[in-house]
Amino acid sequence: MADVIDSEVFQAFTTYATLVVLKMLLMAPLTAYFRITRKAFVNLEDSSAHGKTPEDQKKLLRLDPEVERVRRCHQNDLENIIPFVIIGLLYTLTGPDLSTALLHFRAFAGSRFCYTVAYLCTLPQPSRGLSWIVGMVTTFSMIYRILSTVLLL
Questions:
Q1: What count of other Cβ atoms lies within 10 Å of the Cβ of residue 43?
Q2: pLDDT digit string, tens, across residues 87-120
Q3: Bridge partners of residue 41, in order along the sequence
Q4: Which of 26, 101, 107, 145 has the smallest count of CB within 10 Å of its CB?
Q5: Is 66 within 8 Å of 35 (Cβ atoms)?
């Protein structure tokens, strides 16, 4: 096990996994920022700090398109980054070449950052779709490597 932790592949995985998890974690405060600046809340107790009367507080209970855009981007991160971290960890245990592993890790991390920029800046499609596809193909490529190593496919 010490050999795996000391390997360059594991160190590369740790670096890129940490970057994408950090990006994912930063989406929560960004969502909160958009909620506060757009005064768009989903819970009455959240709106109480910004509305003086109960009627004012109820008016702040609304959906805002920009807040929803950030929230959906965060949701997509949760749906893609968590599987990448799990699959990537298993992938490092298969002993891939460093150059191949770096290609996988960099492609996935790059695709997630591109996806976020495309989503939050409302870039035209297919920019967001292509970045999502790159991340999925990368993850499935690692899954294939895991299965072909373990199951001898």
A1: 8
A2: 999 999 999 999 999 999 999 999 999 999 999 9
A3: 61
A4: 26
A5: no
